[in-house]
Amino acid sequence: RKEVEQDPGPFNVPEGATVAFNCTYSNSASQSFFWYRQDCRKEPKLLMSVYSSGNEDGRFTAQLNRASQYISLLIRDSKLSDSATYLCVVNSNTGNQFYFGTGTSLTVIP
Amino acid sequence: DGGITQSPKYLFRKEGQNVTLSCEQNLNHDAMYWYRQDPGQGLRLIYYSQIVNDFQKGDIAEGYSVSREKKESFPLTVTSAQKNPTAFYLCASRTGVRGNQPQHFGDGTRLSIL
Q1: What is the pLDDT of residues A26-77, one digit of tens each?
Q2: Which residue has the higher pLDDT, B98 or A46?
Q3: Whole-number Å distance between alpha carbons of A88 and A37
Q4: How far apart, in whole angstroms, are the C-alpha atoms of residue A5 and residue B67?
Q5: CA A31 – CA A52 distance, rounded (Å)
Q6: How far apart are the two ends of chain B, measured CA to CA in Å?
Q7: What is the 8-class DSSP label of residue A32?
Q8: Chain B CB contacts of A46 below 8 Å
Q9: Closest residue in chain B to residue A42, using alpha carbons only
């Protein structure tokens, strides 16, 4: 079983739409969770950390469900510039390694 | 500017040749990591280092070697034993070695076989 699993998509949504991605993780002892954004042929860039109580940054909202071992990312009012691959990242139970999902592809259509 | 610098951006390897990818950071980060990304796949950990002169194997260390002689530098050598080296290589670093600090990435090196 993979450490982190994501729906690869692709998600094609119109501008202004709300879209949500989920990611499941296998290690119940994991403590840190992140969402990264990766543009085509570029490096991943940190989008946001995910906190136990959930957190919001502008149009982006991240949630953690420890009981079901998944994290989610909600994007409201999608912009063309949101088109990218979104990577879910979970750390190991020792805290010093990170496991990456394969990414979910999002295309926002005019 | 503070950041993580990887070089070269593109690298070509001949059969039987060892090549070294450079990763330098001026963020005073303790931990550094090397990942490999293949098309349609997630990042896979090659090696990581939490302190100078110490490093640990990741999930796919075979055919690779690293050194950490200075805090700011973590070069990766792709040896001739790595039979399928074509990939996008990413170096990352973070402050601290445990806890919830995220990783930050350099802009990567694309390695291809000649």
Answers
A1: 999 888 999 999 999 999 999 999 988 899 999 999 999 999 999 999 999 9
A2: A46
A3: 9
A4: 32
A5: 9
A6: 35
A7: -
A8: 102-104
A9: B107
